[in-house]
Specification:
By secondary structure, the chain is α/β, with parallel strands linked by helices. The chain has one domain: Aspartate Aminotransferase, domain 2. It contains 9 helices and 7 strands, in the order ααααβαβαβαβαβββα. α6 links the parallel β2 and β3. The two termini are 28 Å apart. The structure holds pyridoxal-5'-phosphate (PLP).
């Protein structure tokens, strides 16, 4: 077993060095052997990938459709994503220039943060939040501005967004909205999204909209912020939760072409 040379110990990326291992994964590993528990650790649907998806993948492998694809994903896949966004939420994204297929939504989030943020930028993250976001802000050298939503029904209210923007000033580059949210499951009503959009529109900032759970709403329709702020929104989504395909690693970014062109350079390293 190789042991790192003593003079190389600690000689790694300094920002990565400030980040600990994934707490969710550590906790999941620790409790997974406990019998008869309902695990609420990883966001894992309690069903399997639908048969028609599995059959299509088997057919594709057998047809040797297993070579390098286009950098942003095959055009057929990007057309399917574009068609889905149109059909499900009436969103318009050009499959040629405005969509990148990614290695799960995890890569979509990572590529978004790393292609958007510079050292000194501030990112607003309503908490409690999915743990992946925090280390990425650190790795990008940006500053994390957490807004506790626990007293507001786990929703970032327009008033609290306005207040934090006033306090933090123009260095705020983006606000992250994850809804339905992990870990709370809370969905944002359309009126709240409209009111948040009114605040965001007044500031020179992006919205990173992680809508990976948009198909898992109960009794309400999901309302994407990309519908009203397409020029500022980087939309993140994927098939992990909607199609019980967590192990397949299929996600995507949909955003204005200028943003996706830059994010594609980040995506090139996956
Ligand atoms: C809010 C949120 N975003 C992104 C992801 C990552 O999804 P994927 O498994 O497609 O990488 C998860 C996974 O749990 C999540 O909960």
């Amino acid at each position: 077993m190789p042991k790192l040379a003593s003079e190389l110990s600690g000689q790694v990326n300094e920002r990565l060095n400030q980040v600990g291992p994934s707490g969710i994964r550590e906790f999941d590993l620790r409790i997974s052997s406990v019998p008869d528990i309902i695990k609420l650790t990883l966001g894992e649907p309690d069903m399997n990938t639908p048969e028609h998806v599995k059959e299509a993948a088997i057919k594709s492998i057998q047809a040797n459709d297993s070579h390098y694809s286009a950098q942003k994903g095959t055009i057929e896949l990007r057309r399917a994503i574009s068609g889905y966004l149109k059909k499900s939420q009436n969103l318009d994204y050009d499959p040629e220039t405005e969509i990148i297929a990614t290695v799960g939504a995890t890569e979509a989030v990572t590529a978004t943060f790393l292609s958007m943020l510079n050292p000194g930028d501030k990112v607003i993250i309503p908490t409690p939040a999915f743990a992946l976001y925090f280390p990425l802000v650190t790795i990008a050298g940006a500053e994390l501005i957490m807004v506790d939503t626990s007293k507001d029904g786990f929703i970032l209210t327009p008033e609290s967004l306005e207040a934090v923007l006033k306090k933090e000033g123009p260095a705020v580059k983006a606000v992250l909205l994850n809804y339905p949210g992990n870990p709370t499951g809370v969905e944002y009503p359309e009126e709240t999204i409209e009111a948040l959009a009114d605040v965001i529109r007044e500031h020179h900032m992006y919205v990173i909209a992680d809508e990976i759970y948009c198909e898992l709403t109960y009794g309400v329709d999901h309302f994407s912020i990309a519908k009203i702020l397409p020029e500022r929104t980087v939309l993140i989504n994927g098939l992990s939760k909607s199609h019980a395909m967590t192990g397949w690693r299929m996600g995507y970014i949909a955003a204005p072409a200028e943003f996706t062109a830059n994010a594609t350079k980040m995506h090139a390293s996956w």
